[in-house]
Specification:
Layout lengths: L9 H10 L6 E3 L17 H11 L3 E4 L6 H9 L2 E4 L17 E6 L22 H16 L2 E12 L1 E3 L2 E3 L1 H6 L6 E8 L19 E8 L3
Parallel strand pairs: 1-8, 2-3, 2-4, 4-5
Antiparallel strand pairs: 5-9, 6-7, 8-9
Helix pairs in contact: 2-3
The structure holds S-adenosylmethionine.
The site of S-adenosylmethionine has 26 residues, from loops.
């Protein structure tokens, strides 16, 4: 894989590439690294993207909801051709053209209404109900899966939540999107979440994981 000389943090990337272990079904990244903006709500660690790129060696990557640009910056540093969109820049990826023929699409949608990103009616985080959100997930899945090239992969990062004491299993909704083309599920330990530092009484179990669900388009 090409390592670009204009990378923002050559040391962090090269050090990680040298010592990383092959991806397994459980991952944990205590540090986010220098990619993207860690003040952006829902910002994800760049190390997950590095592991995906090192594992699958895609030539072309798309992130249709790139937020603060974590995947954009990782791809720039690793010399991978990248296309990214976000509603915050006016692009409604659920309906607008996102291109096609990608080797890898990394999709990190809002987790339902856990965090409202904007008042734009096209924003997934504004879905009026859980059923409406799941319907948008299905819509996005169809749109993005169709944008893969043969053998391409769609990796969806998602977390579960609780609403008024009820457990909302979004990660399970993601698995149900397309069981036929399901390739892998990776459990990602969450760090720096507020529930980790809260003392709960009794039998309450805080949610400290997300899942990356990977679907593969047939060759
Ligand atoms: C969880 S954040 C992505 C965070 C990103 N991975 C990062 O590291 O910064 C989800 C993003 O989805 C975007 N979004 C929501 N609905 C959208 C839509 N219809 N089209 C494009 N982007 C959308 C939001 O603006 C938000 O930036």
């Amino acid at each position: 894989m090409l390592v670009n000389s204009s990378m923002r943090d050559a040391h962090a990337l090269n050090h990680y590439l040298r010592q990383r272990h092959p991806l397994t079904s459980v991952v944990s990244y205590p540090e986010r690294g220098p990619w993207g903006d860690n003040r952006y709500p829902g910002n994800c660690t760049g190390y997950l993207l590095i592991d995906l790129l090192a594992t699958y060696q895609p030539r072309t990557v798309c992130d249709p909801m790139e937020g603060s640009g974590t995947s954009r910056e990782v791809c720039a540093d690793m010399g991978v051709v990248y296309t990214g969109f976000d509603l915050r820049h006016g692009h409604d990826s659920l309906h607008d053209d996102v291109g096609n023929g990608y080797d890898l699409i990394f999709w990190h949608p809002p987790y339902g209404a856990m965090k409202r990103y904007s008042d734009d009616p096209r924003d997934m985080s504004g879905a009026a109900s859980l059923a409406a959100f799941v319907s948008l997930l299905q819509q996005g899945y169809q749109h993005f899966f169709a944008a893969l090239g043969p053998g391409g992969r769609l990796a969806v990062l998602m977390g579960d939540m609780r609403l008024r004491g009820r457990y909302i299993p979004f990660t399970s909704e993601v698995v149900q999107l397309d069981r036929r083309n399901l390739e892998s599920i990776i459990i990602k330990r969450q760090h720096n979440v507020s529930s980790r530092h809260t003392a709960y009484s009794g039998s309450f179990i805080p949610i400290l994981h997300e899942t990356l669900t990977i679907f593969r388009r047939p060759m």
